[in-house]
Design brief:
Layout (H helix, E strand, L loop, with lengths): L7 E3 L5 E3 L10 E7 L6 E7 L7 E5 L7 E4 L1 E3 L8 E7 L7 E8 L3 E2 L3 E4 L10 E6 L2 E2 L4 H11 L6 E4 L3 E2 L14 H11 L1 H4 L4 E3 L14 H4 L3 H6 L4 H4 L7 E5 L2 E5 L20 H14 L6 E5 L12 E2 L2 E2 L1 H16 L4 E4 L5 E4 L2 E2 L2 E2 L11 E5 L18 E5 L4 E7 L4 E8 L4 E9 L5
Parallel strand pairs: 12-14, 13-15, 14-16, 18-19, 19-22, 22-26
Antiparallel strand pairs: 1-2, 3-4, 4-8, 5-6, 5-9, 7-8, 9-10, 9-11, 12-28, 17-18, 20-21, 23-26, 23-27, 24-25, 28-29, 29-30
The structure holds fe (ii) ion.
Fe (ii) ion binds next to loops.
Family: Belongs to the metallophosphoesterase superfamily. Purple acid phosphatase family.
Protein name: Purple acid phosphatase
GO molecular function, one term: metal ion binding
């Protein structure tokens, strides 16, 4: 049947061009994978502009033998062009398997055949690599999208973690390079990352740009993270959070916790959010559970959109967190110490900052070997229409900073005590910063 996703050409100069190939209104587009609610489950998602009779995935372990069928459902929100967001869970997949799949509906049309690799059976023993970054849109995001696709399409990442501010669709009215509206930017953004997202689980968490559209025509319809909640399905159910706004999961030797720094804690910055008062209690319980399981899953990494330690206004002054960073510090830092969280990774500030392991505004060490505290990393400069933010003077906990290049980060978990963190300049894909955290997690 017809092609599922808009064609993406990756040019040698690193630019990504999203072809304006028309996708039929009932044909699948915006395909993306995510990790499911158990280690052997994956969620396959896509969009159709018109309703289809079914939401179907045909899959199997050979491209010519898609002999299994899974079905799911579609959900809609009240916004022109929002379409039908289909979600199908593939359960009980074998480890170490290449799963070929297509998505769609017999009448509406099916996609091309794609494939992804399931978790390795030895996960936790062999090194695993994850890409991690925040604040990635289309305009000015092209170099990062090209670099990420060059690895993601080759299966080099176990999965991707996007730390909020996804697509910058809500900046449509200030975008200089796009004449597209809110929903078109979302669709083009998915199409641009299709080489990665059809092969590699793409995990997300909410940023301020997901809170609503700035367009006066769509503010109400997109209000309160509606589009984020309808376009993505994260494994909150398995983590006891029951939402894609905040969740956790184990993968190999790491317990990952994704927070909403936008909502659901005292002093949260998105004032109009309908508070549920669930996240604070959930986080403490989840950390306690993860700490009790440390013999099996030694690393605990927490992620959220907004930073705790980051230089310059409005994040800090004279090395002391200010405004929302101070609010986050008051909430998170005692928990990070109590449960010995290895690292907190954020975006939001459009730059790269690596801090020394830090506690109460002071480095606990100037080495990442036996850090004695949580390592704070800001990787918010993947690229978007808003460009870079400059930061301020170095703080006492500043180790390295880049405020001029768009870039993205990766983590490689080598074993129970060694974790490699790298940051690359997207335009050249050259390694610009790297550390190895060496920890017995017992400080
Ligand atoms: Fe942000």
């Amino acid at each position: 049947m017809a092609v599922a996703v808009a064609m993406v050409a990756i040019l040698s100069c690193g630019a990504v061009v999203v072809a304006s190939e028309a996708v039929g209104r009932s044909q699948p587009q915006a395909l993306h994978l995510a990790l499911g609610n158990s280690a052997d489950a994956y969620v396959v998602s896509w969009l159709t502009l018109d309703e289809t009779r079914t939401s179907t995935v045909k899959y199997g372990t050979a491209p010519g033998a898609l002999d299994k069928i899974a079905t799911g459902s579609a959900r809609i929100y009240d916004h022109v062009g929002g379409g039908f967001n289909h979600f199908v869970t593939l359960d009980a997949l074998p480890a170490n398997a290449k799963i070929y799949y297509l998505v769609g509906d017999a009448e509406g049309g099916f996609s091309d055949v794609f494939f992804f690799e399931t978790r390795r059976a030895e996960a936790g023993k062999a090194p695993m690599t994850f890409a991690i970054y925040g604040d990635l849109g289309l305009d000015k995001g092209e170099p990062s999208i090209a670099a990420i696709n060059s690895h993601g399409a080759q299966g080099e990442y176990d999965f991707v973690l996007h730390l909020g501010d996804i697509s910058y669709a809500n900046d449509a009215i200030i975008s200089h390079n796009s004449t597209h509206d809110y929903e078109e930017i979302w669709r083009d953004w998915f199409a641009a990352l299709a080489p990665t997202m059809t092969r590699t689980p793409y995990m997300v968490m909410p940023g301020n740009h997901e809170s609503w559209s700035r367009s006066p025509l769509s503010g109400i319809q997109t209000f309160n993270f509606t589009v984020y909640k309808y376009k993505f399905q994260m494994p909150g159910a398995a983590a006891g959070s029951d939402t894609s706004m905040f969740y956790s999961f184990d993968y190999g030797l790491v317990h990952f916790i994704a927070l909403s720094t936008e909502t659901d804690y005292d002093g949260h910055p998105i004032d109009f959010y309908v508070k549920q008062y669930k996240q604070v209690n959930w986080l403490r319980a989840d950390l306690a559970k993860a700490a009790a399981n440390r013999a099996n899953v030694p690393w605990i990494i927490v992620m959220g959109h907004r930073p705790v330690y980051c230089t310059g206004s409005p994040y800090s002054k004279d090395s002391v967190p200010t405004e929302n960073s101070a609010t986050l510090q008051a909430w998170l830092e005692p928990l990070f110490k109590e449960y010995r969280v290895d690292a907190y990774v954020s975006g939001h500030a459009h730059r790269y900052e690596r801090q020394f392991p830090t506690y109460r505004n002071q480095p606990t060490s100037r080495s990442y070997t036996a850090p004695g505290g949580t390592v704070y990393l800001v990787s918010g400069g993947a690229g978007n229409v808003e460009g870079h933010s400059s930061g301020g003077a170095d703080a006492v906990w500043t180790a390295y900073k880049n405020i001029t290049d768009f870039g993205y980060s990766t983590m490689t978990v080598v074993n129970a005590t060694h974790l490699e963190w790298q940051w690359r300049v997207s335009a050249t894909d050259e390694l610009a910063d790297a550390i190895t955290i060496v920890s017995d997690h017992d400080w």
